[in-house]
Design goal:
With about 325 residues, this protein is an alpha/beta fold. It has two domains: about 5-125, Nucleoside Triphosphate Pyrophosphohydrolase (Alpha-Beta Complex), CATH 3.90.79; about 135-320, Aldolase class I (TIM Barrel, Alpha-Beta Barrel). The chain has helices at about 50-60, 125-130, 140-145, 145-155, 175-190, 205-210, 220-225, 240-250, 275-280, 300-305, 315-320, and strands at about 5-15, 20-25, 35, 40, 65-75, 80-95, 105-110, 135, 165-170, 195-200, 215-220, 235-240, 255-260, 290-295, 310-315. The strands form three sheets. Strands 8-9-10-11-12-13-14-15 form an eight-stranded parallel beta barrel. Strands 4-1-6-5 form a four-stranded mixed sheet, covered by helices on one side. Strands 3-2-7 form a three-stranded antiparallel sheet, with no helix packed on it. The termini are far apart. The structure holds 8-OXO-guanosine-5'-triphosphate and magnesium ion (MG). Magnesium ion binds near residues 40, 41, 56 and 60.
Length: about 325
């Protein structure tokens, strides 16, 4: 038996500073004509993904890419081909997108699309775009419950663009089960009116019972799952190496944390991955966003993205800024 032939594709997510991104409609005569996609196309012999991205975006819409970072890799089998799609976040380009192939363009808001249908392979991509560049993990352990809740209230009260918190992972492994449940109940009540999603840590059943927005699992807990759990909207997994990233992939995670990248007070004496180690692991290409964790500040977001990450996950830094 011969191995199935894989078509390698590079596609670009043009991102504007306001968070909107560009979709194009597939021109008549191509498979899935009229479906909406991220502009891009097939790699030619000898090209890297980034080479192909730049060439395709120039051919299809006349722009010159000036800043792009590798993001997700999605493999999908269509009736006509198995495609391996390398997605890039494109944050800089010269020129205005022009429809060189008769396509239409539409700028879209994550989570609120107004065009359809979308190419079937692109569902997870659109979910990934809704994830924030900074994912905050709670720090009641470090600050004390009351002081942390006071910080939480402050961050919930701000507008999204100005430090307002809209995603939270409630991770407090030092708490006994009853205390964690009580805290989770209170945190969900505080967060819901602000539209802040809350993912509980470690306990799928509790997340389902309390109607949390998702669950975040250590890789060893995720490894015991046979498939993605039902009844949960968002699933994250903490990982440290390629084997744990593979677990996250197998259970259909929406994102992974990967670290620790820098030395951090929470893991004294354990060797850090460093950015080279982080990039070596993201480079394999995962179908979900990967966050860098471990000693990460806001200054590290761009570095994480340049190394194949989606952004950074923060514990103490998320609660320290004024
Ligand atoms: N460009 C692009 N292709 C995608 C996306 N999602 C997805 O499944 N694909 C698949 O990737 C494959 C290659 O895309 P393409 O048709 O744009 O290739 P191309 O620009 O080189 O076109 P050509 O073959 O006419 O030269 C197609 O099978 C398409 O269905 C996406 O978001 N963007
Ligand atoms: Mg194309």
């Amino acid at each position: 038996m011969t191995a199935p032939r894989i078509t390698h594709v590079a596609a670009g997510i043009l991102l504007r500073p306001d968070g909107t991104f560009l979709l194009g409609s597939r021109p008549a005569g191509k498979p899935y004509a009229g479906y909406w996609e991220f502009p891009g196309g097939k790699l030619e012999a000898g090209e890297t993904g980034l080479d192909a991205l730049k060439r395709e975006l120039h051919e299809e819409m006349g722009i010159t890419v000036t800043a792009a970072t590798p993001w997700l890799v999605q493999t999908f089998t269509y009736p006509h081909a198995t495609v391996r799609l390398q997605f890039f976040r494109v944050t800089g380009w010269d020129g205005e997108p022009q429809p060189h192939e008769g396509q239409s363009f539409a700028w879209q808001t994550p989570g609120a699309l107004n065009v359809s249908p979308i190419l079937p392979a692109n569902g997870p991509i659109l979910r990934g775009l809704a994830l924030p560049p900074v994912l905050a993990l709670s720090n009641a352990a470090g600050l004390g419950i009351d002081a942390w809740l006071a910080r939480l209230d402050q961050r919930l009260a701000r507008p999204p663009g100005q430090g307002g918190l809209r995603w939270l992972v409630l991770r407090e492994p030092q708490l006994a089960a009853d205390d964690y449940r009580a805290l989770a109940t209170g945190v969900l009540d505080r967060c819901r009116p602000h539209g802040c999603r809350v993912l509980l840590h470690g306990d799928l059943a509790l997340a389902q019972q309390l109607g949390a927005d998702g669950v975040h699992l250590p890789a060893r807990t995720a490894a015991a799952l046979l498939r993605r759990p039902r009844g949960i909207d968002w699933l994250g997994v903490s990982t440290h190496d390629a084997a744990e990233l593979a677990v996250a992939q197998r259970v259909g995670a929406d994102y992974a944390l990967l670290g620790h990248v820098a030395e951090t007070a929470s893991h004294p004496g354990q060797p850090a991955l460093g950015w080279d180690g982080f990039a070596a692991l993201t480079m394999a290409g995962w179908p979900f966003p990967v966050y860098a964790i471990g000693g990460m500040g806001d200054d590290d977001i761009a570095t994480a993205q340049a190394h194949g990450g989606h952004g950074v996950a923060q514990l103490s830094a998320a609660w320290s800024r004024a």
